[in-house]
Amino acid sequence: MSVTKPTMKMRYDLQIIASWIEPGSQVLDLGCGEGDLLKFLINHKQVSGSGIEHNENKVAECIEKGLSVLQGDINDEVLDYPDNTFDYVILSQTLQQVYEPDTLIRSMMRIGKKGIVSFPNFSHWGIRLQLLLSGYAPISRQLPYEWYDTPNIRVITIKDFRKFTQEVGFKIVKEAAINTHSEDRFGKVIKVFPNLRATYGIFLIGNGK
Amino acid sequence: MSEYIEHDKDSISVGIVEKKLYTFAEPPDEMLLESGAKLGPITLAYETYGTLNADKSNVVLILHALSGDSHVAGYYKPEDEKPGWWDNMVGPGKGIDTNKYFVVCSNIIGSCMGSTGPCTINPKTVLPYALDFPVVTIGDMVEAQKALIDHLGINKILSVVGGSIGGMQVLEWCIRYPDMVASAIPLASTTKHSALAIAFNEVARQAIMADPKWNNGNYYFGPKPDLGLAVARMIGHITYLSDEAMRLKFGRRLQDKHDFSFNFDADFQVESYLRYQGKKFVDRFDANSFLYITKAADYYDFEKQHGDGSAMQAFSKTKAKFLVISFTSDWLYPTYQSRAMVKAMKKNGLDVSFCEIEADWGHDAFLISNERLTALIRGFLERVSNETHHENAL
Questions:
Q1: Thinking of the domain A2-125+154-207, which architecture would CATH place it in?
Q2: Quick check: is B333 in a domain?
Q3: What is the DSSP string of chain A?
Q4: Which residue in chain A is spatially nearest to B324 when comparing CA positions?
Q5: What is the interface pTM, i.e. ipTM, of the complex?
Q6: Which residue in chain B is spatially nearest to A51 when comparing CA positions?
Q7: Model pLDDT for residues B63-106, shown as the tens digit of each residue
């Protein structure tokens, strides 16, 4: 499989997510992009996978490579599925662009038994330092936009997300804080001071406290 | 739909093909139609391309729209000016690859392109049926195709593919024969016509029936209602394009003149185009067939017939994997209709892919050579073909 070659390696956060998925499960990937994760999961974990993506070009690319993908807005599309349709519903690096995150995550947990959410950690020391020293809105490799052209309308930290799950009543089954480099294709798990040192947070959440 | 929108004789083609005929439902075993009437004998014109594989698992059934026919691809004779109506999609190495798939396309009953329809001789009267031809439905068309598929010894269809009214037949195949159909591609289609679509069809039918030469459908031994049919076709062509397509294609440009003629000749290019399309159509199409097929399409209501008015309930009886495709500028079968279909499929947990293709060419977009459309269909067929083989191996 070409995906296992280092040059073709999947984004590091997706590698972590893939490692959490039980073989043979039903997976829905919200904002699936070009379908790298889905393709990997189908090839290596024999999942039955489908995706939702807004961008026509990306949807077409997915279908061309043999994935089952729907073009649409994730916030609307999740509403149609019956309860517990999927074993996992994945939202990778999209949460920071969602207008109503709590509504979306509740929908994810309605249609899926488990949810997986990953996002850039806004409390990384680099971001803190930029704001403190320069006084400008921080720009990082993970969030590379100016305040006026960014699609990322939410700032989320690893601690924020933990607090959120408690408040809305979901339990964290697994979590990983990671630091990535080389176009996010390589990275390592951060165990010490994750909220300060990790560039991304990844959470596997389940229903109930 | 428009036919033969573009053609490229130098391109790769399935080559010389042959129109075949299959006749069944000989009296007294006539086919019982949905209206309760009986029809027989029935002849279907059909064509096949490619090779049926050993386990008969590579069948792609193509279903045509209003004015289409069994001639999807290739040429009847080397000197033919134009190939079949979907030659850009069907052929060796194309989106529907005839090196891999055994492609079948059957003409619909009610048509005039070789199958039994109002212009066929009624064996009881030895005259053309004309309006004695029973009103047929989309379901009847599919039942006739099923008889052909049985005759060809096929019991599993890898994919049923069709645009517009062909898409309605796709849905009907999926619900009538859920265990036969592994996958389905309804293109630029709908579960039921909108009031807008019915309205355009009615104006087109009125144009035919208002022509004195129509003569209550009895014109087969005299002059034909060419004017009425041409106007009906002109109306159709307006609905197949879009505001944007017409702006790009014609604008307000004049046809072969620098100024207005100040009479009622065709001044604008769009007028000249419509007149040409209308005139060309009467040479190959029967006015009564136009009435019957548009009526069948207007009557079609997938959710009412199969789900007590609920699309969700209707799709609960289907099993196929779906690829639904719509086009941004299609105002005859707009995207919201495809989305409604997709929604009902999702609620039933069906495997569905959906893409709305950005295209300026209105409803006609599904027939125009389009790399994206080709790639989507190719990718989807490859996947379902692999999955079907995998499932069979288990």
A1: 3-Layer(aba) Sandwich (3.40)
A2: yes
A3: -GGGSGGGPPPHHHHHHHHHSPTT-EEEEET-TTSHHHHHHHHHH--EEEEEES-HHHHHHHHHTT-EEEES-HHHHGGGSPTT-EEEEEEES-GGG-SSHHHHHHHHHHHEEEEEEEEE-TT-HHHHHHHHHH-SPP--SSS---TTT-S------HHHHHHHHHHHTEEEEEEEEEEEETTTTEEEE--SSHHHH-SEEEEEEEEB-
A4: A70
A5: 0.90
A6: B353
A7: 999 999 999 999 999 999 999 999 999 999 999 999 999 999 99
